[in-house]
Structures are given as structure tokens and as C-alpha cells.
Specification:
Helix content: 40-55%
Order of helices and strands: EEEHHHHEEEHEEH
Number of strands: 8
Structural class: alpha+beta
GO molecular function: single-stranded DNA exodeoxyribonuclease activity
Radius of gyration: 17 Å
Keywords: Exonuclease, Hydrolase, Nuclease
Protein name: Exonuclease
Distance between the termini: 44 Å
Strand content: 25-35%
Organism: Symplocastrum torsivum CPER-KK1
Number of helices: 6
Length: about 230
């Protein structure tokens, strides 16, 4: 592994689905909703309308096929990145080669890897998630998140809920690993795009504070609806 820093222990947890929602269960049996479950359940109406309109425009069957393909390429790219960061020399599947070629140069700036694909719980706020990577990007400790897209996002606004997702992971890592000298204030989101260099979105502490506040409001709204 590309690391000379203390590794964070992997938490023993499993994923379960109930009524179409994803939860994580820890070793003691505590079950908390995933970050994506909370984001989907509290999605603003304008985002719901945009998704509905897109589905109607391309057709429900085609929309399902596109979403499935996007999910598979994302999973494949994550696995290839994980193998790379763990120092495993394995061939890249042809289907994700364009995304790998886009994001691989970014990985040259990743060091001090402490956690890869780890489940984290925030018991105080009541959620859990699977963080892509805790490492340093250009020598700054941060949460790293990997995404794929067919064309550039171009702006933070077009990332939609992704910044809130990464803020949630940052908060959960700081909460769960507080005894391991962890106090992350920066996050990085890289979007792999075929035929183009990956887009990098870097979030400074001031922005993270705002995103975390927005995320906590979404969590509170989720639990209020459940009560």
C-alpha cells in the first residue's frame, strides 16, 4: 500500500436493505441508515422533478439501463483504484479503461493512505456510510471520493448532492476515529471522464463547515419524518 502512516482499522459491518433503503449494521447489531438513503429520502423537490423529467424524456426502461451501466462502471473504477492504492498489480478491465486513464494521474498525488473502502458510523447523528479513501492529496490530509461521468460536471452546482455526501463521510470519519489522531477539515472529489483528465473538486474547511451544516439539516429532516 502507498502509505507510511498508521492505518485505521476496518470496522466489521454488513449492509442490509429494507423497503428499498440501505442500512449498515455494526458488530453489536446497531443499524443506521446509509448516507445515500438519507440523501434520497430528503432530496429537494426540484431534484426529484429533474430526475422524473429525465426518465420521461429517455424512457423508463432506457433510464434504468443507463443508471445500471453507470453503477457498474463506478463499482469497477472503485475496485481498480483500490487495487492500485493497495499496491496490487492487476490488469484494468477494458470496460473501465477510459475512466481509469482519466483518474490514474490524480492518484500520483495520493499519499499517506490510512483507510480504503471503509464503513464508518456516526452514532451521534445517526447514520453510516462507506468512505472511498482517507489519505493525503498533495500532502494535505483529507477524505477522497471517486466518481465517474460521461462528460465534465463543470461546476460544483452540477455535483448536486455529492458535496453533502463527502461532508457526511468526513464527519463520520472524524467521529468514529477520534482516538486515532484524526481531525480532517479538507475533502477532495475526483470525477473520471473518458478521454479527458479527471475533474478535481477541492473543498476547504470554510466550505466544509457550510456543507456539514446542510448535511446535518438533511439528517434531522430524515429522522423527523421517521418519528
Amino acid at each position: 500500500m502507498r502509505s507510511d502512516t498508521q492505518l485505521l482499522p476496518h470496522l466489521s459491518a454488513k449492509q442490509v436493505r429494507e423497503n428499498g433503503k440501505q442500512y449498515y449494521v455494526d458488530a453489536e447489531g446497531a443499524k443506521l441508515p446509509s448516507v445515500t438513503t438519507i440523501l434520497n429520502a430528503t432530496k429537494p423537490q426540484e431534484d426529484r422533478d429533474r430526475l422524473f423529467n429525465w426518465q420521461q424524456r429517455v424512457g423508463v426502461a432506457e433510464a434504468k439501463q443507463i443508471s445500471g451501466a453507470a453503477s457498474r462502471r463506478g463499482t469497477g473504477t472503485h475496485k481498480q483504484i483500490q487495487r492500485y492504492l493497495e499496491g496490487k498489480d492487476s490488469p484494468c478491465p477494458d470496460a473501465i479503461q477510459p475512466y481509469w486513464q482519466s483518474i490514474e494521474p490524480i492518484l500520483q498525488d495520493i499519499s499517506h493512505v490510512r483507510l480504503i473502502e471503509g464503513t464508518v458510523f456516526n452514532y451521534d447523528l445517526g447514520y453510516a456510510g462507506r468512505v472511498d479513501c482517507v489519505a493525503s492529496f498533495r500532502n494535505i490530509p483529507c477524505i477522497c471520493e471517486w466518481k465517474t461521468a460521461d462528460k465534465p460536471k463543470g461546476s460544483v452546482e452540477r455535483l448536486y448532492d455529492y458535496p453533502l455526501q463527502i461532508a457526511a463521510y468526513c464527519s463520520a470519519v472524524n467521529h468514529y476515529y477520534q482516538d486515532y489522531d484524526i481531525n480532517l477539515e479538507h475533502t477532495m472529489l475526483a470525477v473520471a471522464i473518458p478521454g479527458l483528465p479527471a475533474e478535481v473538486f477541492w473543498f476547504e474547511p470554510e466550505v466544509m463547515q457550510t456543507l456539514l451544516q446542510q448535511w446535518e439539516e438533511r439528517v434531522a429532516a430524515f429522522w423527523k419524518r421517521r418519528s
